[in-house]
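Lab notebook: predicted structure, single chain.

Context: the supervisor wants predicted structures on file for every construct in the current expression panel, including those that have not yet been purified. This is the next one on the list. No modifications to the sequence; it matches the entry in the shared construct table.
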Amino acid sequence: MDLTKVHVSEKPIKLKGEWEFYWHELLSPKDIQNHLTKDVDHNHWIQIPNSWLGYRLDDQQLNGTGFATYRVVIQLSEQDRNERLALRLPTIFHAYKLWVNGEQLAEVGVVGADKSSVTPRLATKLVFFQPERDTVELVMQVANFHHKRGGITKYIELGGSDVLTVRTHLKIAGEMFVTASLLVIGIYHLLLFVLRRKDRAPLYFGMFTLLFGIRSLLVGEHLLTQLWPNFPWEIQFKIEYLSLCSGGYIIALYSSCIFPNSVSRWFRLGSRGVTGALCLVVVVTPALFYTQLLTVIGVVVVLHMLYLMVGLVQSALRRVEGALIFLLVSMVALVTVINDFLYFNEWSPIGNTSPLGLLVFTIAQMILLSSRFTRSVSNEERIARELQVVNQKLTEMNMNLEQTVQERTHALSVAHDQLRMSYDQLLHSEQGRKKLLSYLTHDLRLPLSSMLGYVEAVQDNVKPERNEQYLKYIRENTIRINRMIEELSYLSHLETGQVTYHMEPVQVAHFLRQFYDQYELVVRDAELDFVLDIGEAEDQGTPSLMARMDVQRLDQALFNIVSNAMKFTPSGGVVRIGLVENEVNDHRYAIICVQDTGTGIPPDQLEHIFHRHYRYERPGEEKGVEGSGLGLAICREIVQAHGGTVRAESDGKTGANFYISIPCIQ
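Prediction complete. Output recorded below exactly as produced.
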């Protein structure tokens, strides 16, 4: 798909066209690349959006159940390569995995090769990624064994992350407004019926509005699954279809209450029988069966509405009050319902419109019911006092209801924020786990393989005279691996922000004095001189330098540098610690310097020494310096957490200087 002439970061587009189609194959991007490497011809393509139901493959027509892999490669413009992009994923029937440039970014439900291994779920998602190259490869595995249709039946949108985020939030906000309006109107009219049971019109209208308010949670952006991700898919689908099946019958009962002569008795009986049969089928059969009845359900609902509209036309001709308004809004609702049935059968490009049409319908019915209520009040002026009391009670109830809705909305918002916080914490932990697993997999493979070779050599008595040497090597490597695992775990926690820092104001010179006293004997035991050189700084008032720091963490970072200096400084050398003050752009910094007289670091290697597992070994020297190469990487993470920087200087011959810069406070 060539998008080099457009800027999707500014104007999102819908990804429509032909995708590669691998029927009954669940392929990862790596599997597909292996196919391409082997020059395996691929000649199956499918138009997106479209269900694979009815797709002709090798002279046979596919049914709705099965599994497949889709793939498309998108060429981006030069501007879009450096932008943060997003994919807006619609509901895809009925479980899928998505890879973008080889990285898995989304999974809804559980994909499998048979019904027992597939977990269906419907949800819309918004995923973000950075292209960093001129092409974007999308690979999607889709499985469906629970619905009559399978595949990517709706548009996938590609665009800038900000644009798609705003568009998605606006759409969710619109659906939440419609849903909340329907639910509140439905509850309100049910309460009206509880207070005045003589009139059944509010009962049927409240049931109809509440039912379709609940249904609007299950379609479109699927608000229910966003609030309750683990809501059972089968129950979700049954509720949606039950609302469709019973909607026509309930509105017929409501119409007969408003216009008593508009619905005949035989129609009510026939409607009850057909509606009951359809609802029973939905309740007792699996979704794979009753979803095939969607066209039948649509025809039944449309026939209900057409019959009612004929009765409304007759009532309007007789100038019955409210019949004309009822007729007009029923036509609007009929158009939106017909469009929804066409849309869900992939015959209409317009999305889900029935919630909006139902909202218009319910508002008009509220006006109609209000006029009837007002008329009854005007006809009963003799009981005005009683009606005034009732009206006062209704007003109080309305205020209480509004307050209740606000409280529930606030509680829902708090619960959503807590859920988001828990999700972010879980995501942090998962990132840390993945990073640690990556470190362990990469860094322990070589020493473990080496140890395995020595163990096999001991078992097979390859060189019995060297068994003791082999065992000593295995023991030393085991100790080294244990130390490496601890350092890798600590580094992964630092990089993912899972380490807590206890910051407090500390006098920098006092901190260095304590550090020197603590490690003086350790350095001198290594036959090195250990010098704390802050005398001039004390004369200049440097002890007044204060910084916010976690003493324990910064002590660890500083010792990692001193430890490295000890390793690479021969006996009789010097390790020196100094402190100076520096001012940059009206900001004061405490500069801690660690200087050694060791072998030094080549200048071209200085930019690599703080990378994980960097170790420099001078050519011609024995490789006897132990270490995992993680100390300076840990040091950099700790210093950066303090808002500071760490760097090194060396000419590669006469030792090295390390500088830790920490911002000062008043």
